[in-house]
Design goal:
- The protein is of the alpha+beta class.
- It has six helices and ten strands, in the order ααββαααββαββββββ.
- α1 crosses α2 (19-31) and α3 (61-70) crosses α5 (96-106).
- The longest helix has 13 residues, at 19-31.
- It is elongated, with a radius of gyration of 26 Å.
Length: 249
């Protein structure tokens, strides 16, 4: 609807439908509670209450983090400033509770090596993975099954990291053997080649890095996990290669 009244005939002409269709749709809107009413007079027609506005679009904590992470590759582009400005507007409109949750989730993300993580094989200058040498060992393996079968896995893991719940995961190792493990999720870690779940593995009684695309299934057990930090996992990656992404850019 426009700020000034529009007759059914004017609306029918604009939207290329019959006046009967317009009147039927207006009635449906009124029955749904939309404040549309008819204004009488020579210049009358249908109008909508000026105080009526659409509800604000609120982003979840995970969505805000996703936006921030997607912008890690925008630096150096002509749109870097504009993209960061857009993110700050999203954050400014977010409720305090969601903003706090987003900041807590962002604090559990580590970027390892140069550039942002991306799908595909290793690239020059990339590290082999979190703890590839003597500390936390990546639990390597073949690619997991069909993508559709594990669509909810990243979401389950993300929520468990945020709520500090123990996870039960099925993981496929390099010999194509799937094992069930209870893990205490700590953080996400991304290299230029892969994303990893950094966790304390109860099966091995040690910190481990699980490649996300090799986690076949994940279930949140609801059991509170002991408080562990990224440093508690003894990740053997030079400090200079590890960075904490900033939610605000």
């Amino acid at each position: 609807m426009a700020p000034r009244p529009r007759s059914a005939q004017q609306l029918a002409w604009k939207y290329e439908v019959s006046t009967r269709t317009i009147e039927r749709d207006i009635l449906a809107l009124q029955e749904a509670g939309v404040p549309v009413y008819a204004q009488t007079g020579r210049l009358g027609g249908y109008v909508i209450d000026k105080t009526f506005t659409l509800p604000p679009v609120n982003f979840t904590a995970a969505e805000m983090v996703a936006i921030a992470m997607s912008l890690t590759g925008a630096d150096g582009t002509p749109f870097a400033f504009a993209s960061r400005s857009a993110l700050r507007k999203v954050l400014a409109a977010a409720p305090a509770g969601q903003l706090t949750e987003a900041a807590e989730l962002m604090d559990r993300i580590r970027l390892i090596g140069t550039g942002r993580p991306a799908p595909g094989g290793p690239r020059p200058g990339d590290v082999a993975g979190p703890g590839a040498a003597n500390g936390v060992r990546p639990t390597e393996g073949a690619a997991a099954g069909p993508t559709g079968a594990k669509k909810a896995v990243p979401l389950v893991i993300q929520e468990a990291i945020t709520t500090r719940h123990v996870l039960l995961i099925d993981y496929r190792d390099r010999r194509d053997v799937v094992t069930a493990r209870e893990v205490e999720p700590v953080a996400f870690a991304g290299t230029r080649a892969h994303w990893y779940l950094m966790a304390w593995c109860r099966l091995r009684s040690a910190g481990r890095a699980f490649r996300m695309d090799r986690i076949v299934a994940a279930v949140d057990t609801g059991e509170p996990a002991p408080h562990r930090s990224y440093a508690d996992l003894n990740v053997d990656v030079p400090h200079a290669l590890v960075s904490l992404p900033d939610l605000a850019g």
